[in-house]
Amino acid sequence: MKDKKLEVSAIENGTVIDHIPANVLFKVISILNLDKIDKQITFGTNLISKKLGKKAIIKLSDTFFIDKEINKIALVAPQAKLNIIRDYSVVEKRIVEVPEEIIGIAKCMNPKCITNNERIVTRFQVISKSNVKLKCHYCEKITDQDHIEIV
Amino acid sequence: MINNKSLVSITDYSKEEYLRILQLADEFEKNPQPGLLKDKVVATLFFEPSTRTRLSFESAVLKLGGKVIGFSDSSSSSVTKGETLYDTIKIVSNYCDLIVMRHPLEGTARFASEVTNIPVVNAGDGANQHPTQTLLDLYSIQKTQGTLDNLTIMMVGDLKYGRTVHSLLMAMTQFQTTFHFISPDELKMPEEYKYYLNQLGLKYTEQKDFGANVKDADIIYMTRVQKERFSDPIEYERTKNAYVLKNKMLDGTKETMKVLHPLPRVNEIDQDVDSSPKAYYFTQALNGVFVRQAIIASILGLK
Ligand SMILES: [Zn+2]
Fold first, then answer.
1. Per the CB < 8 Å rule, is B106 touching A138?
2. Out of B53, B108, B239, B253, which one is annotated catalytic?
3. If you count DSSP H runs as helices and E runs as strands, how many of each does chain B have, helices first?
4. What's the confidence (pLDDT) of residue B231?
5. pTM for the full predicted model
6. CB-based contact, B107 to chain A, within 8 Å
7. C-beta of residue B185 within 8 angstroms of C-beta of residue B208
8. Which of A80, A33, A41, A46 shows the shortest CA–CA distance to A60?
9. Which of residues 95-124 of A touch B (CB under 8 A)?
10. A75 to chain B nearest CA, in Å?
């Protein structure tokens, strides 16, 4: 029997986001607003990964991110890696980094916070990056890693 | 220094700004300067009732010669008709020069200060902040001790949920304070504050009852211990009396020591303390008016 290889086509130019935990693939898509871009997107999920168990991967043709944009996914996919592709080869590898401030992505875990009661864009100061701790700009309470919910 | 700037959180002000407010409060205590707020309108928006705080603010405005509009209970305002806080603040901003607001939800004052150009003074947002209370506490401490530097403050009661003790602690860290924390196990000072004190190298002790430390205290800051905070009602019955201050417990304390309480008290200060020269909580409430005069005048750039 012939070896069967997974067919996820190579891209000529663009970005490959690898090592996304499988269960947050759609969160990553929504955080990066990938549902709104008109470039070719290929994704695979529930792929076997030694590191993550099951991972997802996104390939984006002719799409490149600035750090500020891509770092938004650090909250849900801290181990994500980016490969920047030019002319079918990887020209640069990047990792994501938790930004100093998180705007409009996470939900405050304090039910008495005004942001959970009115339509207000949430805003947090990141007070710890390794074990993520977010301090709400409004109610000043801390939302920790285990309680982060994406809006 | 403080010009047209909202006061939302006690950490919005620097040590210099605290001292400037206290200095101004002292001026207003000696002379209320009723002409200062002529032609100014202050709105007091109380989305939850707090009669004492509201009256204190309104008294401060009136003493300065200003006018007050507002509401004291959201059920009588358009809020019950489903109007958003955003809309309420936008509309009220057309009618006044400064907004004083109290709200049961946390973060409301910060949000309000971002949707209007008019300065906002936070008069309490849920369990979060009540910065004017802290400034009046500082004023009371400075007035009775002659200084804020190198004092020993004993905080007693509910140190876990007590918003006033947390803010006072944060403010007093600027003045090399030593703290004694007295509380039931279930209501101990949260780790984050102790961590902060450790980082600053400030001294503190923690215990369940007054003990010998009471003799060192310059200030005893009492708070309410609520029965509902206890998971075990028997534990409450066992500990409750330890947190009721009685006059004889003040034996051997410093002559200059004063007892403060943010009020209202329920039963945590026995009435037999009231006649002691060490009881200061009612004067502390009066000081709130001078301090609020100072904050309002300062924020409006009139002083
Ligand atoms: Zn919040």
1. yes
2. B53
3. 9, 9
4. 85
5. 0.87
6. yes
7. yes
8. A41
9. 110, 112-115, 117-120
10. 23
Amino acid code (one letter) for B109 = A
The identity of residue B152, as a single letter, is T
Interface predicted TM-score (ipTM) over 0.90: no
> B121: left (phi > 0), else alpha (psi -120 to 50), else beta?
beta
Could B107 and A113 be called an inter-chain contact, meaning their C-beta atoms sit closer than 8 Å?
yes
Length in residues, chain A: 151
* Closest Cβ opposite residue A118 in set B9, B86, B104: B86
Q: Are residues A82 and A66 in contact, defined by beta-carbon separation less than 8 angstroms?
A: no
Cβ(A68)–Cβ(A20) under 8 Å? no
What is the spatial distance between Cα B241 and Cα B119, in angstroms, rounded to a whole number? 44
d(CA B1, CA A135): 27
Which tokens sit at A10? 């190579």
Distance CA B223, CA B163 (A): 10
CA–CA distance, B135 with B287 (Å, rounded to integer): 10
Per-residue pLDDT reduced to its tens digit, B154-175: 999 999 998 899 999 999 999 9
Task: Say whether B104 and A112 touch across the interface (CB within 8 A).
Answer: yes
DSSP letter for each residue of B273-291: GTTSTTB-HHHHHHHHHHH
DSSP state of B147: -
Residue A127 has pLDDT above 60, yes or no: yes
Question: What is the number of other CB atoms lying within 10 angstroms of the CB of residue B90?
Answer: 13
Mean pLDDT highest for which of A79-88, A91-100, B288-297?
A: B288-297
Rounded CA-CA distance B137/B163 in Å is: 13
Cβ of A139 within 8 Å of Cβ of B106? The answer is: yes
What would the two tokens of residue A120 be? Answer: 């207000």
Reply yes or no on whether B81 is catalytic: yes
Contact between residue B275 and residue B248 where contact means Cβ atoms under 8 Å apart:
no
CA of A111 to the centre of ligand 1 (A): 8
Residue A116: alpha-carbon gap to chain centroid? 23
